[in-house]
Amino acid sequence: MTRSHRSVRHEPETNVELNPLFSRPGESTIFPRFTIPDGESLPGTAYQVVHDEVMLDGNSRLNLATFVGTWMEREASQLYAETFDKNMIDKDEYPQTALIETRCWRMLADLWNAPDPAAAVGTSTIGSSEACMLAGLALKRRWQHRRRADKKPTDAPNIVLSSAVQVCWEKFCNYWEVEARYVPVSVEHPTLDGHELERYVDENTIGVVAIMGVTYTGAYEPVELISAALDRIQDGTGLDIPIHVDGASGAMVAPFLQPDLVWDFRLPRVASINTSGHKYGLVYPGLGWIVWRDAKALPEDLVFHVSYLGGDMPTFALNFSRPGAQVLLQYYLFLRLGFAGYRSVQASSRDVALYLSHEIGAMDAFTLWSDGSDIPVFAWQLTDGHSQNWDLHHLSERLRMNGWLVPAYPLPEGLSGITVQRIVVRNGFTRDLASSFLTDLKKEVAYLDALTAPMPDGKHKEAFHH
User: Fold this and answer.
1) What Enzyme Commission number(s) does the record list for this chain (predicted)?
2) Same domain, 77 and 51
3) Same domain, 333 and 361
């Protein structure tokens, strides 16, 4: 079939049909879905087609599933538009952007109580998943160096994780051939807390990952208890095992709302910390951060060096070209909010989470798993015996009809027989919006409770992936 013949086919599933209002003389009113069109169209036409398509995505502000920021101030959006063209990897072409990146991770090193923030090492990343990959690589390489120095084999590294860990750690273990040793959660130990940790670590353990804000429930893992357990293990076996703190969410909440909680570089065993600038760092999607305690925590053979303005700039990343605009947005927010501003924003989100969890926990249908007092995230299950006619998947579908995205999913290994729903309260989700959500939630629960027979037994669509 020639291209000209292919371009005039009008099957609705293979073409996008243009509203006549937006077509101009000489323009096609049909665009192929899966092949590049033969000719050009006007900017306004192409804009309208894409605009109308993504309109079907729904309202991101009503997405209570995502941790990723969905709102910023007008000035931030203006700065974003002005710096779309910045490439973060071009540090010699954009030296000021590179300098601002360094300022940001130095600020984070100070926020996370690095012994000497000036001696810390850090970088921005596309997100906290890339940051976790870099953290894992650093742990593995440090372990390899120690093993080789002792003339021991390096072919069987392992890393210890909670079964509630985010999927990026599963990817790390798969991609870089590290055995994942999962510590299952339980009702008695709903997070990794150091209990029986000695069963999982050995001379091949490159590190232990602690999560500041488990994605399933929002709860902090007690890093101090994990560190104390590893201290005891070292006293008994001589094994000196470092900790990486996956603070994707909590590392930008705990310093402001729980400043006395010891989880960061105040613990000598903590080698590195990552966070998501685009979560509770309050930036639009596409930004993560990782900071190492000092240069010893990041093996030099993993670092590449570029020079700019006659100076040396170390770089360590999986990606090459990537946006620099989000780094500038993070700096904008650090200047705009300061410590007091971040504390106020995070406290407001926590207040909304506590309000919602209190109201939901008071409903007969639900039993809380967490209340949002750590990070502003909480989860609940259907109360045992409440109903045989519906479950949380049905409720999730009913809420979606109102525009709300609230996932239902099983808890991780050890508790996988329990299904929960979870809400992430982000900046921009106001008390007023929370009240509107509660109204819809109660309406849909009343509808489901009034059923006289079970909902159809269909296969539930996977609502969420960790």
Assistant:
1) 4.1.1.15
2) no
3) yes
What region does 58 belong to: left with phi over 0, alpha with psi -120 to 50, or beta? Answer: left
pLDDT digits (tens, 9 = 90+) for 172-219: 999 999 999 999 999 999 999 999 999 999 999 999 999 999 999 999
Domain assignment present for 62: no
Beta bridge partners, 245, equal 210, 273
| Distance set, CA 436 to CA 362, 404, 408 (Å) | 17, 10, 20
pLDDT of res. 170 = 95
Confidence band for 17, pLDDT divided at 50, 70 and 90: confident
User: Two tokens at 333?
Assistant: 């927010």
> Which string of b and e fits 131-153 if b means at least 16 CB within 10 Å?
bbbbbbbbbbbbbbeebeeeeee
The domain of 327 spans: 71-466
pLDDT given at position 430: 94
Do 425 and 376 form a contact (C-beta atoms < 8 A)? yes
**Whole-number Å distance between alpha carbons of 269 and 262:** 12
CATH number at residue 219: 3.40.640.10
Overall number of domains in the chain: 2
Rg of the chain over CA atoms, in angstroms?
25
Which residue(s) pair with 381 in the sheet? 367, 420
